[in-house]
Sequence to fold (233 residues):
Amino acid sequence: MQTSFNRLRSYFRHSRPARGFTLIELLVVSLIIVLITGFVLFRQQGFNSSTLLRSLAYSSALSVRQAQLYGVSVRESGVGTGKFSQGFGVQFGNSGLVDSSHYLLFADTIPASAGNGQYDAGEELPRFTLGNGRGTDYYISDFCAHNIASGNDECQSGGTTITSLTIFFRRPNPDGCFATSRNPGACAVNAVPVYSYAYVQLKAAAGTDVRTVKVSSAGQIAVCKVNADPASC
Fold:
């Protein structure tokens, strides 16, 4: 009986055809793997770009915060100068030391123009660089100030064109003041405020997402959500 069972089992084992992968099946599996890998890499690249843009936006916001802290603290405007009352600001623009890839922190210290609340050559402190500094990866796509009287934004782009934006802080208040190439004296001592808030927009050269850094006249500094409307940020 045992012998007959072993013969029967051997018969079925050897009579069963061998089963493997066909060439078409291997090609289909390989194609699926390639498509999944490509999708993951594409999404990863987008994630990295979004993360870096967010990081640059917060870094720019910290630069503005630094100017605010200097403006309300007792930081000496120059080593050994004995000057502690000057205001500090951040300058954005499209010429000279500031362009779409660079902005700078400055101290309002030059005697001939001290107190004018705007950047003058020779007042620069650190100069900050976005991305690789050539604008081929990340850059400042726009900067604007909201005019109180007209209720409109004055921007680098658009109908009301400006070529510079100053975000300024003067002791002892943390309030922000804003001046542009259209109203360069808006932050001078005892000047009547012209703008209620200002914002700077950063963008990745290879993407469509925009991050906005907004500063209000009350001194609030915010990094808006991706592609958010600055007016409601």
User: Anything to note?
Assistant: The CA atoms of residues 102 and 200 lie 12 Å apart. The domain at 39-76+84-232 is CATH 3.55.40.10 (minor pseudopilin epsh fold).
